[in-house]
Design a protein that fits this description.
Layout lengths: L1 E7 L3 E8 L4 E5 L5 H10 L2 E6 L5 H4 L2 H7 L4 E5 L11 E3 L4 E4 L2 E7 L8 E5 L9 E5 L2 E2 L2 E2 L7 H12 L6 E4 L4 H11 L4 H15 L7 E2 H7 L8 H7 L4 H13 L2
Parallel strand pairs: 3-4, 4-5, 5-6, 10-13
Antiparallel strand pairs: 1-2, 2-3, 7-8, 8-9, 9-10, 11-12, 13-14
Length: about 260
């Protein structure tokens, strides 16, 4: 399974999954149609699945037109998003599975950003290789999504689920927010040498116009303040030793950053 990341809107990424042997493709969170159609035309591939993580327009905006171009496509989303995702046909729950390119992904229910958000995790085919996590707007490189419909407790539980995956999991998040996320992270975890190093690397990437996605989950665990609510430095910044309250206060600080 090959993954293409396509730029869309101002800072979105759409992920196209490609199975060369069958010449078929699936798309994760098609914000718009044209980048997907262009990549499919280059591959001469048929689109067979749309995997949506949540209902926001910048993740489902291309659904209807893609369904018109590929009438046989199947549209997936979370069961709690019933009626909110255009064209949704399959309603997924925590622990459900979806299949593409002889790979089976586990569906992880991760409410917080929205009440219905899900993520798709493809475990590695061979031990030691990276798995693939398509997490929408729950976990970002260096950050996490705003809490539009969920609670801090829900988001901490959701991020904890993702944090439990192997360190070499590739994190395919849906926005290029990394540089700004790390600028904020330094304000609450500035003595973190791993974070300092990552910030300089990301600055160099972005100065060359290079994407910072995918990230590696192990890097996130060391540098992302929204996965580090037990750390004394973060608790000091939040003036709390309660994990949920620490997360909530850091998230509130980021909202105003």
């Amino acid at each position: 399974m090959q993954v293409f990341h396509l730029e869309a809107l101002s800072d979105n990424y759409i992920f196209l999954l490609y199975d060369r042997t069958q010449n078929i493709a699936a798309v994760v969170d098609p914000a718009e149609t044209e980048p997907v159609l262009k990549q499919l035309a280059e591959l001469k591939a048929e689109l067979v699945a749309i995997f949506n993580t949540h209902h926001h327009q910048d993740h489902v905006g291309g659904n209807k037109q893609l369904m018109q171009h590929f009438p046989g496509v199947t549209v997936y989303g979370g069961v709690e998003d019933r009626g909110r995702i255009p064209g949704q046909q399959v309603y997924l729950e925590d622990g459900s599975h979806v299949q593409f390119a002889n790979r089976v992904a586990e569906v992880v229910f991760v409410p917080g950003h929205t009440r219905a958000h899900i993520a798709y995790y493809f475990p590695p085919e061979i031990a030691g290789e990276p798995g693939e996590l398509f997490c929408g707007d729950t976990l970002f490189a260096g950050g996490c999504g705003r809490l539009f419909e969920g609670t801090p407790t829900q988001m901490v539980n959701s991020l904890n689920k993702l944090r439990s995956l192997p360190d070499n999991t590739r994190v395919w998040c849906a926005h290029e927010y990394t540089l700004n996320n790390l600028k904020f992270a330094l304000t609450v975890d500035g003595e973190n040498s791993d974070l300092q190093k990552r910030f300089e690397e990301v600055k160099a990437f972005r100065s060359r116009g290079e994407a910072t996605v995918p990230s590696l989950l192990g890097v996130e665990k060391r540098t992302n303040p929204f996965l580090r609510w037990e750390q004394p430095t973060l608790q000091l910044a939040a003036k709390s030793n309660d994990p949920v309250q620490t997360f909530a206060r850091i998230r509130g600080m980021k909202d105003k950053f």
